[in-house]
Known about the structure:
Blueprint: H1 2-11, H2 16-31, H3 35-51, H4 58-74, H5 77-95, H6 100-115, H7 119-126, H8 137-156, H9 160-177, H10 183-202, H11 206-223, H12 228-247, H13 251-265, H14 273-292
Helix pairs in contact: 1-2, 2-3, 3-4, 4-5, 5-6, 6-7, 6-8, 7-8, 8-9, 8-10, 9-10, 10-11, 11-12, 12-13, 12-14, 13-14
Amino acid sequence: REAVVGYQRLLGDDADVTIATQNGLMIALQSQGKNQEALEWARRIVDSHRGRGGTDTPSFASNLGNLGETLEQLGYYEEALPRLREAYAILQRHYGEGSVHVHITRLNIAHVLILMHQHQEALALLNAEIPPSLEGYSVSTERARRLVLLGDCYADMGRADEARRYYDEGEAFVVANFKPDNVFAVFANGYIDWGRARLLLQEERYREALPKLRNLLERFRSAGSSNINYQATVLRLQMELAQTLVALHQAAEATELVKSSSEAIGKLAPTHPAYQNLQRLQAQLGAGARGGE
């Protein structure tokens, strides 16, 4: 914070070193779970960069991408999408298909589209494979993420067979390319298992889904990260576990999960799945309590 203030006084808001230091502060705030303050800084950084002109640059695209990702993780999908699209267009102009950052941003756009249930546009982006000429650790993570997102997209469309096929392909890719204790592999396998559990919920196979959701919640909690995406994942998992408990008439445990999560979920956008699930659960549990009076 002190460095940001110092550079602002000496060089102004739009100096390269000021913006870089603001980025560092934003990342530090995210790591501490101070999500709304991190979002405010992400907005300021983009505004500062726009203010000085020269926005057709990879560095501006990176700042836009950071803002878009932060908005997405908090559930502000309508705001996130145009930022990510703009970043993608800039990166494509500079790199074509020759940079992993182009593909990271394309997959981020697809993820937002899935969350907004705009499946056909998401599939159009996901069906574009990463060129074989690109190699490296980051490229491998994005190849795996693409397969998982394809599974998520088909699952959200209610096409379970295709979803399971892509989850299987994603799992096989992770096994072939990462060690089991690799951090990315641990989280990727967690998201794959979560996708499979959601398919069970769609099929109303609640008793099968329940132990899987409990296990997943424990796995994600044990990671102990305060990252925005991690926090939102844990909250969404807690709500899906609570929904499953309600379906199995275990209202007391569901009520405790809702109570323990409501304050944190209240800081997310109303469009976030965890927020929407919380609203539904509170209504269901409230109706159940009134019915038992």
